[in-house]
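Journal club side-thread
Mid-discussion, someone asked how the predicted structure for our own chain would compare to the paper's figures. Pasting it here so we can look after the session.
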Amino acid sequence: MGFSDEIAGTVKQDSERLRELKAFDDMKTGVKGLVDEGVAKIPRIFHHQPDKFVKASNLGNTEHIIPVIDLAGVGKDQSTRQEIIGRIREASETWGFFQVVNHGIPVTVLEDIKDGVRRFHEKDSEVKKELYTRDQTRPFVYNSNFDLYSSPALNWRDTFACYLAPYTPKPEDLPVVCRDILLEYGTNIMKLGIALFELLSEALGLHSDHLKNMGCAEGLFFLGHYYPACPEPELTMGTTKHSDNCFLTVLLQDHIGGLQVLYKDKWIDIPPVPGALVVNIGDLLQIVTNDRFKSVEHRVLANHIGPRISFACFFRTHPKSSPKLYGPIKELLSEENPLKYRETTVTDYVAYYNAKGLDGTSALQHYRI
């Protein structure tokens, strides 16, 4: 076969793939629509290349367990606070991930937000179709795979997205089935986020308001994920390996599990802890801390069991906000720790990240000096 035949074959494959992607997108019912149709074999647009890193290695291994940090008593006395800050510092510098308990958000609110996400995704498909869109400027966006046309393979999940701060959506812009709990959860998470940024600032040896005053807690973006049961989970992923395009992520996962973090080239399970929230450092916090805090790659496995529900809250400024430049914090730089990143606006970083899609590479590399 000649070179021109190879090119013709690739073009044909690409055009077929594009046709399959468009057909899936035009259904406007997402992965749940496929499951509702009773698919026994997943479409090839969902087939992933095997990951080069070994499967989860921490089963029964107590050494590789993501820290669970108890926030009770953080405001009571200085010694308890310093102990908590020390644990957060260590987790942020090594794992990039930790879980928090006694975080102040009632368990009833955590259960209500999971129920709200499920209720939305299990609404009648004809009603949901009206909200299905790829227009990121809408106040509420529902679709499957934000990077549908740019990623190498699709993920087995559907998602809704909305900003809760600094511009609170009008109640009528949010679906009735989850409107109240979205707004209530947003208030709770914003309060927790500010408290976490204070602890992270102190962990860096800075004034407790430093990260907040930089605008790290100014914007709040929500993603409500729905991972239906998958007939062939070994062929696909719930979410491809990626790091987050924000300052900080606070994630609520249900009891099913499947979230894994890449640590020393091994996948480590983050088991669900009742009442806990998963906190992880985002790319923008790695930039401003000049690599001190790590934005670590993570993924979600597809599963025979489902649906898996998760709710992710991302602290990052709104695209409509001021074009503020973010780069490494001057106080953290020294001869031993020189500047490692060029400055960027949040808008530019997110645009680059989204255009690249979840292709298994880190957007951080693009901004390294």
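Post-session note: The mean pLDDT is 92.
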